[in-house]
Amino acid sequence: MAEIERLTITLPAAMAAAVKGAVAGGDYASSSEVIREALRDWVVKHALQRQELASLKADIDRGIADLAAGRLTDFDADRIAERGKALSARSRSA
Fold this sequence. Notes:
- It holds the Pfam family RHH_1.
- The chain has 94 residues and is an all-alpha fold.
- It has one domain (14-93).
- It has helices spanning 13-24, 31-68, 77-93.
- The longest helix has 38 residues, at 31-68.
């Protein structure tokens, strides 16, 4: 089993009430379980954000490299809007 460390945290009243409500409602056996699950969710969300940021940075780097190499196309707002609509529709159907 993983090593356990005891922490004392301070929460705004609304958050504390939500934690207590989750325990009182029977969803969790203890406040610690609520906080552990919230932290697990945060870790996953944070990792996804880092991946998305790395992907965005890679896209920017590719764009800068294309610009430096002279690989340019004329700006076409309609083409960009259509591409965005297609990507949006695809993500909604997934």
